[in-house]
Specification:
about 230 residues; mainly alpha; 8 helices; globular
């Protein structure tokens, strides 16, 4: 698959890494407040500007939607109010739905290796649902839906034709981030669990956007065959 030359984004990378690192330091020091929440939203907000600069058409609209949903989730999950968790979950659910629609828009039919990976992802989803079956019944439905959507999103990322699997690995990092968050919140405390969760999340978003730029830059539309 021919790839178009991408435009440099060193300045965006610097802001992303600097803001993300600063937020992680504040989290490690247990410093809260509106400043920290705003800082958490800055890295992914920077990616929105990068997407708006470099992508057009369908990829631009749906990447922007996914990133906006993520920023809302970033803010809602950082505010220390238990009642906001479900809204943060919904925000990230919407973000994954935007990613899912975009990825399947360009997906190709799976090969034999892809089918094996998809089967593994389906088994993993079933395992996660079984593990979390004992959580608060009010949250079980949304959590199960979230698991199904994020696994579906990762399948879409797997099936997008590209020179490498960077998009899929970004989706896998997102899954890892969410698993750490869920286990740490509902099952057992993980040492430095929130730091691990957010670090994986920042890596996931950066990886997905980097891959998206390589695949879709200057391409407004495409023909998916899935």
């Amino acid at each position: 698959m021919a790839q178009r030359k991408t435009r440099p984004f060193h300045g965006f990378s610097f802001v992303y890494i600097a803001a993300g690192t600063a937020f992680l330091v504040l989290m490690a020091l247990d410093r809260g407040g509106i400043g920290r929440t705003a800082l958490k939203a800055l890295p992914v907000s920077t990616l929105i500007l990068l997407v708006l600069r470099d992508l057009r058409g369908f990829p631009s609209i749906f990447m922007t939607g996914a990133l906006l949903g993520s920023v809302c989730g970033d803010v809602l999950l950082d505010i220390p109010h238990a009642g906001l968790f479900i809204y943060g979950l919904v925000a990230f659910l919407m973000a994954h739905l935007f990613y899912t629609v975009l990825f399947f828009r360009f997906a190709e039919k799976p090969g034999s290796t892809d089918m094996a990976v998809i089967a593994g992802l389906a088994l993993f989803a079933g395992l996660m649902i079984w593990i979390f079956r004992g959580i608060d019944p009010k949250l079980l439905g949304p959590v199960v839906l979230y698991i199904v959507v994020i696994i579906t999103m990762s399948v879409g990322a797997l099936l997008v034709p590209a020179a490498n699997r960077l998009l899929f690995w970004g989706a896998i990092l997102f899954i890892a981030s969410d698993v750490v968050l869920a286990v740490n919140k509902f099952l057992v405390a993980i040492p430095h669990g929130r730091l691990i969760n957010i670090t994986l999340y920042f890596l996931a978003q950066f990886t997905i956007v980097s891959a998206a730029r390589t695949i879709w830059m200057d391409k407004g539309t495409g023909n998916g065959t899935f």
